[in-house]
Amino acid sequence: NLVVNREITAIKLDSLIAIPDTAFVRSFTVFVGLQPVKVAPGKSFNQFPSTEIDFNINNGVALKRVDMRSGLLSIAFSNTLTQPLDMTYMIPNATRNGQPFTIFETIPPGKNSLLKEYDLTGFSFNMTGLTGNSYNSISQTYTMAINPNADTALVGNGEIARIEVGYKKLVPQYIEGYFGQQVIKVPLDTAKLDLVKNFYASNFLLNDANLKFRILNEFGAEFSAALSNIKSINSLNNTSVALTTGQLSYININRATQAAGTIFPSIKEIELNKLNSNILPFLSNLPDKLTSQGIVKVNPLGNISGYHDFAFYDKGIHVIADINIPMRFNADYFRLKSNTVIDFKDVEQLDNVKSGNFVINATNGYPFKARLQAYLLDEAGKTIDSLFVPGKNTIEGGQLDNNNKVVAPFFSKVLVPVDAAKIANLRRSKSIQIITYFLMPPNPPDITIYEDYQFKVNIVAELTYNVERK
Predict the structure, then answer these.
(1) pLDDT digits over 287-336, tens only?
(2) H or E, element range at 15
């Protein structure tokens, strides 16, 4: 059996939820009475209450925890006083190694007098706000004082400072909450398949095969999905075959679970065979590519987890095609092809060759006749010459038992004449392409190809070589 496993598409965390860049402006004002007052160095302003900032996350997503893989906090500080201000800005429920996110800065007088960026990597954000009953929200606290080394400041009613805050480039490592009831479109994509490399067959049709779509869900949320526009593409022949089946139009996918940081994905398997699909012509196309697209619906039954959906950065939903083909088929012939790089440009001894033969010793361990051909190719891959003489390059198949299994290979010797023109073409060649055609007999019985079948070629040169005597 030929078994091939390929991931054909995947949905990662950034496709599921994106935390948008978010900005706000916070003004700090004081009321000191009818007349300005003098404020001594080190004196604090204590009348600035805590606030919340809400992240406008789309699709009904309600997050209660976000662990940051990366992200930046940018702040433009302004100070309307004539003396420097000390500010402490804290996010009490954003912690790293048990310590809350805290900024302490001395702000010089002037508008946008201090511009800073802060790294949020590794901080875990509690997104339930000031009361613990919100979602997508964080709380912030502020304290402010005249710098201890400043002069006495004259402070009147109104704004004494302002900050312009921006959260940007936020990439979660882990999120938890409710992911909403959103629809994710999986765009048309092409996966490399290479079902059988360097293999071609005429009127090839498999007798049996199956394709299993295995869907691994590493998200802690339920999904429903539909896969469509699945085609097998053979680039060599420029042919494609669309998959027809009703098995992929509605798929329920259970949530993953986790314990102590270990994820246990849910696995959904949909098996396609010759009874519920056109899988035989689909795979008989011998595709090197597979196209697919789809739609995924998140939480089709609503918030049944009670805000305990979860997702990790490097995890997701993976759609894997498991292909199993018993190597039994009907065909007129099939072909194996391989290329070998050569370079005889500087081999001076070829100048002395006048004639002779290449002796091809072939051992055919397959149950079919084989026809050999080799092509000399230039650096552009264009054919310069062929080596084997048509009609004299066929090797008989191996000896079969009553079950059509090879019990003894067939040995053969093929002569390829060599002349001056052949030598000249050999010098120009950059590679040799060897093609083996296995020829099917008329109305053949079912024949199984086993993995230990081999076709071996050994090339020996028997040449007439002139030697100059001095």
Answers:
(1) 889 999 999 999 999 999 999 999 999 999 999 998 888 766 677 777 88
(2) helix 13-16
Provide the residue type at 304 as one letter. I
The model carries a pTM of 0.71
Question: How does pLDDT run across 382-391, given as a tens digit for each residue?
Answer: 999 988 878 8
Q: What is the DSSP letter of 244?
A: -
Query: Measuring CA to CA, which residue among 3, 6, 2 is closest to residue 288?
Result: 6
- Residues pairing with 269 in the sheet: 214
Q: CA-to-CA distance for 125 and 139, rounded, in angstroms?
A: 10
Contact 227/191 with Cβ under 8 angstroms?
no
User: Exposed/middle/buried for 330, CB within 10 Å: 0-12, 13-18, 19+?
Assistant: middle
**Residues 143-194 pLDDT 10s:** 999 999 999 999 989 999 999 999 999 999 999 999 999 999 999 999 888 7
Q: Is 200 left (phi over 0), alpha (psi -120 to 50) or beta?
A: beta
Percentages (nearest 5) of helix, strand, coil residues in the chain: 5, 60, 35
Give the SS3 label for residue 238.
Answer: coil
Report helix, strand or coil for 281.
helix
Task: Give the Cβ contact number of residue 384 at 10 Å.
Answer: 15
HEC sequence for 126-174: ECECCCCCCCCEEEEEEEEEECCCCCCEEECCEEEEEEEEEEEEEEEEE
Q: What does the alpha-carbon distance between residue 139 and residue 127 come to, in Å, rounded to a whole number?
A: 8
Position of tokens 């001894």?
349
